[in-house]
Amino acid sequence: MRFHSAGLLVLAALAGCFWPQKQAGAAAGGPQLLVVCTGWHALCSASPDCRIKGAKAECDCLRVNETHIVETSEIQDDGVKRITMERCTDETPCAVDEAPVCEAIRSGNYEVENIRYEWVSTYSYRGWCGLLQPPPVPCDPAAAGYTGDRQWAICDAAPCTELADPPDPERPLRCQCRVMLTSFVGANGTCTGRDGGIMSSFPVEAWDFGKNTYPETMPGYEYVQAACAPLKSDPPPP
C-alpha cells in the first residue's frame, strides 16, 4: 500500500506493500481511496532483495489467503480500475468484497498489457509486527552522506506469476513492481536491500517515525497495532 501525500506502506509493503494517499484531501464524491477484499493475493512486504530487470523490479513475494487492501488509483488493469473507481466512491463506498477489483483478483481476471494474471500484489498485515523490529527508518538518497540504496520497488497492485521452482519456497510468487527513485521507508532499520537487491517499500511520507505508525487511517490497523503492542497496562487517565 502506499501514501503519495505515501503509498503501507506498507506496507508495504512493506512492501511490497500497499500505501494510500491522504484521505483528508479526498474530494467529496470522488473514487473510494481504499477497498477491502478477502482471499488469495501476493504479499511483498518481506521482499528485501528485488532484482531490477529493465524498467521493472522483480520481487519474490509471499502467497497469502487473508483480508487485504487495494488502493484504487494503483490498479493496473485499466478496465477493472475504471469500473472500480466508478462504482466505489466516497458517497457510495464499497463494502468488503464489493469492489470489482476484488472479483478480478479472486477469479484471475486481472489483465496488464494484454496479459492475464492469476496473482496480484496487494497489502495485508501478515507478519507486520516483525517488520517493525527494529523500527523503520527514513531513507533519503538526496541527503548528504547517504549510503543506502538509491532505488526501491513499489508493488501496489503489481501483476505476479507463480514460480515452478522458487529459490525461496516461502516466496513462490514473482511480481513485476515499479522502480522508484524517491525517498522511502527502510524496513527493519536499514536503507539497504539484501543480497545486492533493492527492497519493496513505500514513500517516506507514509510513515510517522516518531510514533512508529501510519499518519493516516488504514482499514483494520487499530487492531494490528494493538496486537503488536506489549502486553501491559497503559498509564491511568489524567
Largest sheet, if any?
Answer: 7 strands, antiparallel
The Cα radius of gyration reads 17 Å
DSSP helix fraction: 10-25%
First-residue to last-residue Cα separation: 36 Å
What is the tally of helical segments?
4
pLDDT averaged over residues: 88
Give me the secondary-structure category.
alpha+beta
Uncertain parts: 1-27
Multimeric state: single chain
Order of helices and strands: EEEEEHHEEEHEEEEEH
Principal-axes geometry comes out as globular
Find the count of extended strands (DSSP E, 2+ residues). 13
Strand content: 15-25%
Structure, explained:
- By secondary structure, the protein is α+β, with helices and mostly antiparallel strands.
- It contains four helices and 13 strands.
- The strands form four sheets. Strands 2, 3, 4, 8, 10, 11 and 12 form a seven-stranded antiparallel sheet that branches. It has a two-stranded antiparallel sheet with strand order 1-5. A two-stranded antiparallel ribbon has the order 6-7.
- The longest helix has 10 residues, at 78-87.
- It is globular and about 45 Å long.
- The model is unreliable at 1-27 (pLDDT under 50).
